[in-house]
Amino acid sequence: MYEIALTVAACLRAGTRVDVAWVVDGDLAPADPGGALALTPGGGRVGSLYAGALDQQLAEQAQLLGDSVGRLVTLQVGELEAQAFGLAGTGSALAVVANAALLPPETWGMLQERTAVRLRWTRRGDELTAAELDDPEGHDPGSAVDEIEVNTTWRPVPTVVLAGGGPVLQALEQMAALLGWRTQRAGNPDTARGLVVGLGPLDCVVLAIHDVDLAGPVLASALDGRAGYVAALGSRAMQESRETWLTDRGIEGLERIHTPAGLDIGADGPAEVALAILAQAIQERTWRAQAKA
Fold first, then answer.
1. What's the pTM value of the predicted model, to 2 decimals?
2. Which domains are delineated in the chain?
């Protein structure tokens, strides 16, 4: 939910309708307790659920929503969808879909500040009303659903946006999961730009897009945001081309981009490069915490 908060808040300020969705129960794997999707009537989407496997179904459900209630909807993922989106298997998911304006207004500011949030809905069948904020203390991230209430707790964990593709990003996705970090894959540069704008100091952007005209806007968006760690893979010539692209457009903060990416540990092969990148991200976070203290 944290990665869509900035976009949702901007839509609400502008008077633009925006619907939000998140999964509260189901048997799809791997679990994604912090995932969320924002949808606008014109077809705009920010965020994703289960690598995008549920996005189209949720967009269709959002079109059926009224203004005064949210809904619980059951979604199915078949074998073809599971394979296409890289899920471990088929299954179903129970999701909340609601007009973002139904949530308490302060919700979005709290999420942008990366604080823990607990939201309680009153349930009547599939209808959800009276969304209220509750004390998150003592509650783990995730949702609890019963006959009268739906409760969801969000707690910030580091999110890694993986922009592009390739074996290093695949290794990063696997290793980040071992750390309990959340990863978001974005093979499309426009998708990547939408994801990085909502990141905060806990979060990372790792780019492996080798077309400079596609990579440049993603890096520009990352530098315009608050991501704590930004890294870009590529040859020295590629690094210089990206720097020229950004400089020519007046983009500032290029010193924030770690390139070559990762600590200099003599990494050999995708797995070791991924390890070096995560180690560098942790090092950066530790240095910031020490400086703040």
1. 0.67
2. 2-154 (no CATH), 159-292 (3.40.50.720)
